[in-house]
Amino acid sequence: MSADGDERRRRAETTKRVLVVDDDQTVSDVICRYLEHDGFQVSHVGDGEAALAAVARQAPHLVVLDLMLPKIDGLQVCRELRARPDGVPIVMLTARGDEADRILGLQLGADDYLTKPFSPRELVLRVRSVLRRAGGDPPAGGREMIEDGNLTVQTTSRTALLSGRELALTLREFDLLVHLMRHPARVFTRTELLEQVWGWNFGDQSTVTVHVRRLREKIETEPADPRRIVTVWGVGYRYGPADA
Questions:
Q1: Quick one: which H or E segment has residue 191?
Q2: Average pLDDT over residues 203-230
Q3: Cα Rg, the chain, nearest whole Å
Q4: How confident is the model over 44-98, as pLDDT tens digits?
Q5: How far apart are CA 229 and CA 186, in angstroms?
Q6: In terms of Cα–Cα distance, which of 229, 106, 135 is closest to 178?
Q7: How many angstroms separate the Cα of 102 from the Cα of each of 9, 36, 135, 167, 172?
Q8: Distance CA 232, CA 244 (A)
């Protein structure tokens, strides 16, 4: 992108408010500096109680949330944010060895995560990606409406209906569902799904496993015996249309 294009994008994103929640002042300073340089309005708090108060007061467009926090830990903050009707996107920060907490955070509905230590520039790219999707950008390619029996997905409005009832899907859950529905009967490995849905050419494949489990709980009649998102043992997952 040209310098003029970069500047236009940054000006367009100046209204986007990002709340950084991390008690490590050095890390927070770097994150805030990179986000501000990219044109975001950034605020920072250092504990879980302050995070919940700041979200209520500021209504940020996205929260960068560390899991290891004083007063209220990041998992509880994530849980309480997901109970709010506005569904503020969350990019989660975890320590390298905290796999169980990372998986739990994804189960609670975090939209993306980074493992410390991380590249601040990568964090900015993840934030921009999540915000684009939160702003209504449909997953690329394919038709606007996808139907499978009692399941209907509208990609432009980013809504999914099951028997006429709107499903509460996170950004990544929605994108994963659309990708699978657009390629019925095709088997995807978890590596392929990370690359094609998350846009990652590396990362923890358990991310895919967690999101598949959450999707099954929302679209399957019997999540333990799924009919739509089927496991192909030793390979990955495929979408089987309900009327197949």
A1: helix 190-193
A2: 89
A3: 18
A4: 999 999 999 999 999 999 999 999 899 999 999 998 998 887 778 999 998 766 6
A5: 11
A6: 229
A7: 31, 26, 25, 24, 15
A8: 17
